Amino acid sequence: MELKEYLLIIKKQLKLFLAIIFLVVSIAFAYFFFRPVSFDTALLLNVTRVGNQVSDGYKYDDFYRLQADEKFAETLVQWLKSPRIVTDINIEAGEDPKVFNLKQLTKVFQADKLSSQAVSVKFSAPDKKTAEKIALAVSRILEKNTEILNEDQKENTWFEVKSQNPIIMENKPDYRVVFLFSLLTGVFLAFWVVLVKHYLA
């Protein structure tokens, strides 16, 4: 069929075509407008040292120290994927960890190593107060686990985790993107509905 024939079919079923588009766009806007409010939170963790190794040579406080910091930053990332650590964080923040299953616990936090001494942590919370409590709990639990590693060290050169104040922003959808995407989806769906209806008539 030529394009002109498709356009004629759509013209005959124009009301149905437009109604489907309107319905799809309306559903999309309703979903984003009435969905629960959430707050995206970003937290920066810095890996530092409790002390310095005294040495005249080129030893751990130089190249090897940076390598060790990088490995520990990777450890922090893996900790935040651990169900045990995530459960402890939720308990520390006063949240019920039982709302998550084991698989969901591994995805609560999105942790990325930015450099050898910086780790970015992102997560969502239903309100700003909860986001602040969870961010504080992340810092406390990671610090506690780091202290446990420090206990067996003979030298005062082990790791320390310092966190900065979290950035908390309401997760607002871009309604221009929502409109464009839902419009294209609506046109696609309406085209096939009209076409099928035409051939079944």
Which descriptors apply to this entry?
single chain, 201 residues, alpha+beta, Alpha-Beta Plaits, 2 domains, five-stranded antiparallel β-sheet, 57% helix, 17% strand
Major sheet attributes: 5 strands, antiparallel
CATH class label of the largest domain: Alpha Beta
Whole-Å distance between the termini?
A: 17 Å
- CATH topological fold name of the largest domain: Alpha-Beta Plaits
Domains counted in the coordinates: how many? Answer: 2
Tally the helices: what do you get?
7
Give the helix proportion (percent range): 55-70%
Short description:
This protein is an alpha+beta fold and 201 residues long. It has helices at 3-12, 14-34, 60-79, 83-92, 102-105, 128-150, 175-200, and strands at residues 39-49, 110-115, 118-125, 159-163, 167-170. It is 57% helix and 17% strand.
Explained architecture:
The protein is elongated. It is an alpha+beta fold. The chain is built from seven helices and five strands, in the order H-H-E-H-H-H-E-E-H-E-E-H. The chain has two domains: 3-35 and 174-200, no CATH class; 39-170, Alpha-Beta Plaits, CATH 3.30.70. Helix 4 packs across helix 6. 57% of the residues lie in helices and 17% in strands. The model has no long low-confidence stretch (mean pLDDT 86). Strands 1, 2, 3, 4 and 5 form a five-stranded antiparallel sheet that branches. It has helices at residues 3-12, 14-34, 60-79, 83-92, 102-105, 128-150, 175-200, and strands at residues 39-49, 110-115, 118-125, 159-163, 167-170. A hairpin with a 2-residue loop joins strand 2 (110-115) and strand 3 (118-125).
